[in-house]
C-alpha cells in the first residue's frame, strides 16, 4: 500500500478578516520580535590581551599590516573588540589558520609549537566567551515545511501550504536556521490565508459524513480511446486497453477519473503485463489542467503477467486528491523497436505492453469525521444546522448548510475552546493572561456583527498567526521540558510534539532523566513520521532539493527520464534511512556493500538481477562503485550542470557536505574556469593553469582531488571512461525511447589525484579507500550537521569542545548512526539555547 498527498494551486483570496484583526495580529507579532531582539543582544568582547597582540605584531605584521593585507586580512583595521558575527568570523579564521600551522607560513617563520599553542589558547577564551553569549540571541520561527506539517497534524487536514508562503532563506545548508528566517508583513498576510485554508478544510460543512463516491472507469470509455484505439492503444477481448510505449502522445491520463471533491481516496488499478513473462513497472500520478498546478507522483508499481488461471492483479494505494485532479498511468521501460505502431497499427505488434482492465476510485474516505481540528475547536459547543425556510432545499446539489453554535455556558465554552487550541498550537500550557487577547478579539468580532462561529474562527486564526505558534519558545540557557519536547519533535518528526511527548514534558521527565529523553527519541525514530526527517535532512544536507535546478542535455544524455529522476532521489533518502534504522557505521556513507535500487537504477548502473519498480536493498559485489553516497546518481546530478561536470563543484560538495570542511571563497577578481564545449580539452586540463596561481593553490589542493575522483561519473551519474560531447570524438548512434540520438565520445577521463597529505590515488575506488581512513572526520561532520539542523543555529566556536567530545564517544561506540543520534540528543548543545 502507498500513501501520498496531492498538492494543488491555492489562490491568494481576499482575507475574510477585518483590518482590526490584521492590526492585532501584526502588532502582536512584530512587538514580540522587536522585544526579543532588543533584550537579547550579545555584549562586545575584548581581544586586546597583550599576548594576542604581541604575537600578531611579531609573526603576522609583515604580510598583514603597514599597508600589506595579503588574503584580505589587514591588522591595522582589525577591531580589538568583537561586536558582531562578522568580527567573530575574522578572529576565528585567524585562530584556525594559526592552529593548523598554515599561518604563519612555515618557510618564513621561526615559530615553535609552544608559542603557537600559547597564542591559540589565549585567543580561544574571548572567542568562546563571545560566541556563547551570541548563540542564544537569534529567534527561530517555523519554516514553511514545519508550518505546513504542524497545521495539518493539529487539525487532521492535508492542505498544501508550503508554496503559499514566501520562500525560506538557507544558511549553512539548511532552511531552518534562525538567522535566515526573517518575517515580514507578507509572511503575516500569508499566514492568515493559510490559517483560513486549514480551518476551511477542517471544519465540517455537513452534519453527516460526506457522501462517499465510487468511480469505476475504463480507458476504453475515454475521449482519447476514439482516436487511439487500434493505432497506439489496443483493446483486448477481455476489455483491457494496452499501452505499448512509455513516452510521447498520448500519455495515460484518465479523464473519466476526475475527482468530485478534495479528500483521501482509495485507488485500485486492475491489469496485467501483456505479451511478456516479465513484470512491467508503471507510474501512477495525478494531473490537473489548472494553470501552475503540480503533477505529483503517487508511486511506481510492478504489474505482473496473468496468473496461472488467467487472473489479473489489482494494485491498491491511498492518496489525498484535490478537486478535479485526474489519474495518470504510464508504463516505463517499454520501447517499441523496429516497428512503427503509429503507421502500421497495433494488431501486428507482438512486443510487451501494459494492459489496464479497470480503475476504481473510492472516496472521500471518512474515517475521521468530523476532523481532529473540528473537534479541537467545537467540542464544548452544540453545533446545529440551521434549517432552510424550504426543507426541499436540503435535497439540492447546490445546498450548503449553515450552522449555529450554542452553549449553556458560552463564556466557559469559549474559554475552554481557546484554551485547548492555544495549548495545542503553542506546544505548552497556556495561562489565563495569554488567552485574554484572543477572548477580546472574539468579543470585538461579535460586536461588529460576526456570528459566534465566525468570531471563534477568527480568534483561532489569530492563535495560528501568533508569535507563540510561529516561533520556538527557547529562552537563552537550559531549555525547559516543553522546549526540549518541541525541539526533539521538530528534529525527528518535523512537527508539533505528540501527546506522549507533551505528557512527559508536563511531568518534567525530559529534564529530570536523560534516559526518559532518549526513550522518547527511540520511540520517534521507530515511528513512520521519521521519513519526514529523512527527507528534509538529506534533501538539505546533500542538496537533493536542487535536483531539478538543471535539465540534462537530451542530446548528450537521452536516457534521463522522470522515472530515473524520481528513483535517484528515493535511492539516497532510503539509503540514509537504512543506515539510521539499522545503526550502521558512518563509513557506509563512503562505501557500503549494498545499494537501494529498483529496475530503473539498476539498468542505469549496469547491475543485473533487479526486476522491481520500488526501491529495495540490493547486495553489491565487492568491486562495485555504487555503494555509498559518492556513487549515487542524485549526488552526481546535483553537482553537475546537465551538460558538463566540474571537479571544483564536486570537490566543494565532498569537502563541505561529507567532510565538514568549508573552503574559503575565491579571492575577488578570480573568475571560474569555463568548460570547452567542443570536447577538445578536459576541465581538468583547463584547471591546471588556474590552480597554479598563488591565490588559488591552497584551496584547490583541498577541493580538486575529490572532484577529480568523481570525474569517472557523468552529469546523470553514469560511469564513464571517456567524455561525451557534441563536438569532437568518436560518433555514437543510438535509439533511445524510440528516437534516434547521436553524440560523440571524446577525451579519456583521468580520475587520479593527490590529497593535501601527499597521499595519491589512481581513481575513484582508491579515493574512497582514502576517505575510509578518516571515520572520525565523517562522524564529526555528521554530528555537527545534525546539531545545526536540530537547534536551528550554526555550530560555532564555543561548541567545538563538546563536538570533539561527542566524536570521541562516537568512536568508542563504532561511529554507528543511531548511536550517534542518541549522543546528539543527549548533548548539552541539544538541550540548551
UniProtKB/TrEMBL annotation:
Chain ranges of the Cytochrome C Planctomycete-type domain: 60-107
Record bears the keyword Nucleotide-binding: no
Source organism superkingdom: Bacteria
Residues annotated as signal peptide: 1-41
Domain DUF1585, chain residue ranges per copy: 757-830
Domain DUF1587: 140-204
Residue ranges of every copy of the DUF1595 domain listed in the record: 414-474
Identification of the protein by name: Secreted protein containing DUF1592
Source species: Rhodopirellula europaea 6C
